[in-house]
Amino acid sequence: VARSSPSKMPTPPFSLVAPSQYDLSTYWGRLKHFRSSTDFTTLFQGHKLPQAQALLAAFRANQVPAGTTDRDLWQARKLVDSTLHPDTQKPIFPLFRFSAFALCNVPIIAALLYPTRNPFILGGAQWLNQSYNVAVNYANRNASSDMSLGRLATAYCAAVASSCSIAIGLSKLVEKSTSSFWKSPAAKSLVPITAVSAAGIINLIFIRQTELTEGIAVFDSTGEQRGVSQAAGRDAIFKCSLARVFWTVPGMLIPPVIMTQLDRLRAVRANARPRFFAELAVIGLTVYFVVPCAIAVYPQRDSLAVQQLEPQFRNLKYTDGSAVERLYFNKGL
Fold it and tell me: Could you give the count of Cα atoms lying within 13 Å of 123 in the half-sphere of its Cβ?
């Protein structure tokens, strides 16, 4: 049996059944959970994955090595959960994990915020952003409803084309507008935010369209699969779409505000190179802190009352004869 580790905040007893060491029924518990699971340091610990898996296997077999603490076990599970897909249990490509999201978005957001009306630069920045989003959306999808490579390629082309069209179209519309409102700095910042938010949602829908058309697997509280639900798929896509808006708006508003304040410093304003690196640091830190706040709004292992699902789920029973009231599913990220 693992022993507790001394710390200011006591580590809860380790469990493989519990969805997290934090209370996921509250926003703050989910925030702590996603802050831990998006920790970028796990990207550099791939060599420890076999050891972490072996430790969890030893726990299952009740053969935990002497001296192992609950903290050790939770750290092992953190590495495994942040590396492996929850449905397939296969490693997610490192750059497509949410732990890499902030790092990868630094150059992408810098390109999106670059002040230009050149359609090739605008289109290139949107292509880079949406190509990365396609990869992240696909890597973190609910894998119980998969798609062929052909459908994936079609979805990728449609997502990138529509996303770039929205971005360039909005920029052209604002450029031709005679309204003084669209000439203000605040209004100009709305264009990339609106474009990226709308494009991100369209991207998500195209890449995870099978969750809408075919549904996703739903489970009862004991973990038994009770079928496939399109209603659960729609709920998952809707909540993941909102999360993308939640992190896009502050992620693109906060850096310009901070840089405006930093530009008052002569050392920053007068030197292009330090300013460039300062802006990259601000972007990276903003995304790093904002993304967990956004994805914590809803739990990843979400649930719906059976009345909100299709009719075939409304009269299900457990083996003891009690009614199944809620069904659970992997919402994805």
Answer: 8
Please report, for the chain, how many H helices and E strands are present, in that order: 11, 4
* DSSP states along 26-40: SHHHHHHHHHHHT-G
* Residue-wise pLDDT tens digits, 88-147: 888 899 999 988 887 888 888 778 767 677 777 777 887 888 788 888 878 877 666 666
Tokens 């880079």 sit on residue: 128
Give the residue carrying structure tokens 């709308």.
198
Per-residue pLDDT tens over the stretch 58-101: 999 998 888 889 999 999 999 998 898 877 888 899 999 988 88
Instruction: Report how far Cα 176 is from the mean position of its chain's Cα atoms.
Output: 36
End-to-end CA distance of the chain: 34
Q: Are 114 and 125 in contact (CB under 8 A)?
A: yes
Burial of 42 (C-beta count, 10 Å sphere; 0-12/13-18/19+):
buried
CA atoms within 13 A on the CB side of 236: 35
Maximum distance among all Cα pairs of the chain, rounded to whole angstroms: 74
Contact in structure between 59 and 16 (CB atoms under 8 Å): yes
Structure tokens at 247: 């992190």
* Residue 5 confidence (pLDDT) above 50: no
Q: Is the pLDDT confidence value at 323 over 70?
A: yes
Reading the block at residue 278, the tokens are: 């300062």
At which residue do the structure tokens 């002569």 appear?
A: 266
**Helix or strand run (H / E) with residue 53:** helix 49-60
- Among 174, 299, 189, which Cα is nearest to 236's? 299
Contact 200/301 with Cβ under 8 angstroms?
A: no
**pTM, full prediction:** 0.73
